[in-house]
Every structure is written in C-alpha cells, then in structure tokens.
Design a protein that fits this description.
Blueprint lengths: L6 E12 L1 H11 L7 E8 L2 E8 L2 H4 L11 E9 L14 E5 L2 E8 L5 H10 L9 H14 L4 H8 L8 E5 L4 E5 L8 E4 L5 E4 L2 H6 L3 E5 L5 E5 L2 E5 L10 E2 L1 H6 L5 E2 L2 E2 H15 L6 E4 L5 H11 L7 E3 L12 H11 E3 L1 H4 L3 E6 L6 H12 L4 E6 L21 H4 L2 H8 L3 E4 L4 H5 L5 E2 L1 H4 L10 E2 L6 E2 L7
Parallel strand pairs: 14-23, 17-20, 20-21, 21-22
Antiparallel strand pairs: 1-4, 1-10, 2-3, 2-4, 5-6, 6-7, 7-8, 8-12, 9-10, 9-11, 12-13, 15-16, 18-19, 24-25
Helix pairs in contact: 4-5, 8-9, 10-12
Length: 475
C-alpha cells in the first residue's frame, strides 16, 4: 500500500480532423489510477500544436472551457503523471513539447531511465539547458539530437534507443506522424487498438482503449516501434528480441486496473490466483476475509474461495479520494488514509479478520488500516500481502525507496506484524511470481535484487529528488 508509479500515456491518430482531444480526455480518465499529480493533452491541428496541461486530476485540469479550447485535429498525445524522478511542479507536466531545427515534437513517457543521471550530465556538459527535473526531457533531447542527423523521426527514435537504458513506453507526435515505442525489456505496458471510425489509439492499458470504444489489436512488443499514418501503421522491429522480457510484475499486483489485460494476462485473474496461493501458504483461523480497496479486493476473493472463509466488505473507500501516495509528505499521507477509508463496524465487530492487500513499504499506511479495523471492533487482524517483501530499490519507474525506508529490510516478518499491529502477517512467496505470470518474463528486482540492467552507482532513491551521494545506500 502507498506504492508510487510513473505515468499513463495515451495517443490518437485519425485520418480525418475530429475531436481527438475528447478521445484523449476519456482515455486519460481511464488511466487516472496511474498518476494523479498532473495531466496534459497536446493536439495536432494541421501541423500546429495546441497544449493544455497542469497540476491536478484529469477532471480538474480539463474542467470548464479547458477541453473545449483545444481545436479539432488529426492527432493528440496525452499523459497522466506520478513522478518518480523530479518534483511535483508545473514544469514537469507532460506531454513535453520541443521545437527543433526540423520541426516539432510532443512526447509522453511512462517509466524511468536507469542511466538518466549519466545522460543528463553528458547533455549539460555539451551545452544543453534543462527546464524540467524529469528524465523525460533527457529522452526528448536525445531524440532531437538524433533527428537533426536522421531522415525521419522514427529513424531518430530508433537511434536514440541505442542510448536509452531502463524503462520507457513512449508516445510521441511530430507534425505528420504519431509514433509509439516500448523499451527492449518491455518493463512498462503499451497496447493499441482502433475505433469504429478508423482512428488508431495507443494506451498504457487496454482499459483505456475500451473507454473510447476502440477494439484491442495487440500489445506493442518489447523493443518495437510503431509509426501510424494515413495508410495504417508500420512496425519496426530492429530492437525486438535483443533482451529477455522483463515486464514489471507490480503492474499485475498493484498498478493496473483489474479489467485490463497486459501482455495477454488478465490482471483480475493474476490477483485472484495470488489470493489463492496466499490461502495455501499462509492459512489463518478467521471468520471473514476482506480486501483493501481497490487492488486487494480480487485477491481477497481468491483467498476466500481457496480457504472457505466467507468474503465480505469491511472497508469502504471514499471514491473521491485518490490513492494515498497523492500526498507528498508522510503526515499528509496518513491524513489521506484517514479520510480515504472507513471500516464497517457492523461487519467487523467481534470477528477474526483476514485483511488482504497488495504491499507493505514503510508500514505506516498499513498500521493505520489495521488500527481502523480494530477500532471498528475486529477481534483479530491477520494481514496477507499479494507481493513478496520489498528489499531493494527500483530504477525502472516504481518508486521503491532506498533500503533504509523499507520495513522488510529492517525487521523480520514477526517484528513487522507487531509494528503494524497485526496478529499475523504473510507475504506472497517470491517463487510464486513466475507461476502467476505464466513464465512469460517479468522483473521482480525490487524483491530479489536481480536487476536486468546495469543500475546507477551512488544514486540515492528518493520520491522527490534523485541525487548523487557518497553515502552507502545500504543495499
């Protein structure tokens, strides 16, 4: 609980001029769970770019006349952001727009570069001036440099991919083309489809395609570049098959909406099966199984079915409050938990309760939730987690902090249970992840410490700042 993730991206290409901003708006609405700090849309009308972006939720930024102020066009790129690098300020809002010698570029990015600091330092030493603190601007600079000496924007992107390391699912727009790309490891999801009127739609999750009435075509493959034009789309595969697939397993555990299908695997089914495994590996003598809304609900149902313990609704989420990580400070995060969740005393009174949730990072949020259940009369609280313990920082877009802030690095399972106020605690075995992902290839480095790429040395992982330090990270 209280995990942070990078972003959601969305793009539209239409053969005729239409209200692409509205399609993008509804697509971003469906992806709101992926980022709540800021959002933006850039529309292409006859080669001219028109932008609206700001801090806040999609409904806030595009309330009133903001959306209607955007013209009709043939292309649009959209973005919802939760930053894992760079601060929460308007300059970091995406999509980023770049004017260069050969034209324009609008870029939306989901993920984190593991070599962002190295690339940024090199660019600054060569005279580049940065206006944001996010690594998305680094990507834009490198693509632009390649574009100056390339014959097309897709050639420039392909050349840039030789330099970029780590996680990136990109949607970018030039004056004439909409292009998307996924890094060779496929850390972050990306898919595309087509609407009944023939428009192509690209999105981080399939649920966003459904939101705009687009039929799912397929996932963008790791390393693939897709170029959309009036004659359809062209697939470039020169970067495909060079690395073993490493989709972030936390997409299934937490980030994605349960109605999404990512790389052929249902998020709902993954969570259901994870709950069943938890019931087998960590049984509990209890009267009721409940899930922490929203990502714990499917797994709680699976736990209930496997264990035979009745499933119930014990926690109610205020639907107008976003995920707890929207608040930047810890005190604010705890306050948001207080107003986000409420316990149903009539359901919990005198019961031995199994609470199923997706993760424990620092333990502060879970301690508060367990307290809510006890205050509502729960006799016992047994916590079951659908992820293994977090033991290592992530460099690919999941804001898993430095090890000194991870409760599992400092305490045993029994000690953690006591700290969060639970009668017992059980984590998903790390060995279960390959089974749950159908052995299709996933990254679990935040659990195992086995990173698929070279990780930056001396980089302190922090929610608001990424800086070089001489202090040891404790890994």
């Amino acid at each position: 609980m209280a995990i942070h993730e990078a972003c959601g991206v969305f793009g539209v290409f239409s053969k005729t001029k239409t209200d692409v901003a509205a399609k993008t708006y509804y697509g971003l609405y469906a992806l709101q769970h992926r980022g709540q700090e800021s959002c933006g849309i850039v529309v292409n009308e006859d080669g001219l770019f028109f932008s609206q972006k700001d801090l806040g939720l999609v409904s806030e930024v595009f309330s009133g006349r903001s959306l209607s102020d955007l013209p009709k066009g043939t292309m649009a790129v959209g973005h919802v952001r939760y930053g894992t690098t760079g601060g929460n300020n308007r300059s970091n809002c995406q999509p980023l727009m770049i004017n260069h010698q050969k034209g324009k570029l609008a870029l939306a990015h989901n993920g984190n570069l593991s070599n962002a600091e190295q690339l940024r330092n090199a660019l600054e030493m060569s005279g580049a001036i940065f206006h944001t603190t996010s690594d998305t601007e680094t990507i834009a600079y490198i693509i632009t440099k390649e574009r100056i000496r390339s014959s097309s924007i897709e050639d420039a992107l392909s050349a840039a991919m030789h330099t970029l390391e780590g996680a990136y699912s990109l949607v970018l727009m030039s004056a004439q083309k909409l292009i998307c790309a996924r890094d060779p490891y496929g850390f972050r999801p990306l898919c595309f489809g087509q609407t009944p009127d023939g428009a192509y739609v690209v999105a981080s999750e399939s649920c966003a395609l459904e939101a705009v009435g687009a039929a799912f075509i397929r996932n963008v493959e790791p390393g693939e570049i897709l170029v959309f034009g009036k004659d359809g789309y062209i697939s470039r595969r020169e970067h495909c098959g060079k690395q073993k697939k490493q989709l972030c397993v936390f997409e299934y555990i937490y980030f994605a909406r349960p109605d999404s299908v990512i790389d052929g695997l249902s998020v709902h089914q993954f969570r259901l099966e994870a709950g069943k495994i938890l019931a087998e590996q960590h049984p509990a003598n209890a009267d009721l199984v409940i899930g922490a809304p929203d990502s714990g609900l499917d797994a709680a149902l699976g736990f209930s079915r496997q264990s035979g313990i009745p499933y119930g609704i014990g926690l109610i989420k205020n639907k107008y409050i976003g995920r707890t990580f929207i608040a930047p400070g810890q005190s604010e995060r705890i306050d948001s938990v207080r107003i986000k969740l409420s316990a149903i005393a009539s359901v919990l009174q005198g019961k031995r309760v199994v609470l199923v949730d997706d993760s424990i990072v620092r333990g502060n949020t879970m301690r508060r939730v367990v307290g809510l259940l006890r205050d509502a009369g729960a006799k016992e609280v047994h916590v079951r987690i659908t992820a293994p313990p977090f033991l290592h920082p992530c460099f690919y877009g999941t804001d898993i902090d430095s090890t000194e802030n991870l409760i599992a690095c400092r305490h045993t399972v029994q000690e953690t249970a006591a700290l969060i106020g639970a009668d017992s605690l059980g984590y998903l075995p790390i060995e279960a992840l390959e089974h749950l992902t159908k052995h299709s290839g996933s990254c679990a480095a935040c659990f195992s410490g086995e990173y698929p790429t070279k990780v930056p040395e001396g980089v302190y992982k922090n929610r608001f700042e990424q800086k070089l330090t001489d202090e040891k990270s404790g890994t």
